[in-house]
Sequence to fold (230 residues):
Amino acid sequence: MDTYIFSQLTEEILKTLVTLNEKYIAPEKWEKMQIALTAEECRRLEDIKSTLYRRHLVVMNETTLWARAIYPMLMLAEREHIQAWSSVPLKATYPKFKLEGEADGALAPALGGQIRPPYLIVHEAKRGIQAPEPQFQLYGEMLAAAWLTWQKSSETAVNPDSVTEQEIFGCYTVNDSWAFVRGAVSDIETEKPTFTLEFSPVYNGIWDAEHIVRLLKFIVAKHLEAINNG
Fold:
């Protein structure tokens, strides 16, 4: 069984591992995926934006950009036991292949201070001519996270056979821009699972900051609702 590191993944490799089903979704659908910000969240977001206005984000190094522009916005979406995380290790064993590596960030449950399978994966695009394609690295990270969620759900379900499709959200950032992906992995126990993908418009981290955080809050709330109903 072959093991693939996320940075090795290309579109060609992914198509040999899973059936990719990419769908166009009207931007209006993503516009409806939002939860209003509280007054305190608006104040905190304005503080973040006010520092970014005066920074040269295009030339800022990746670590600093993550700390100033990406991670603080993830923290605004935290709720109950769902937390923002950095440097998230992921490992999954599908019937015919393995995936492993580290995601730049995630929104995921915490239990006793330990991370549990994430629901939103964040990949920060690396710079340089030789840098891997961020989109396909994100796909691999989402597939790994979906498998971890499926494994956990199967262990706790009264009827494990009822655990089928796994929903997983992801986004990749390029400088301060965000692009979201909704994924659904089905037929996980087969030799070639199906990975269905829906894509958001690209949002600017300053001008669209409110929309980004409202969308992050929606994703967290959706996950909590699924837990409470499950």
In short: The helical segments are 11-17, 27-31, 39-52, 62-75, 134-156, 209-229. The first helix runs from residue 11 to 17. Residues 2-229 form one domain.
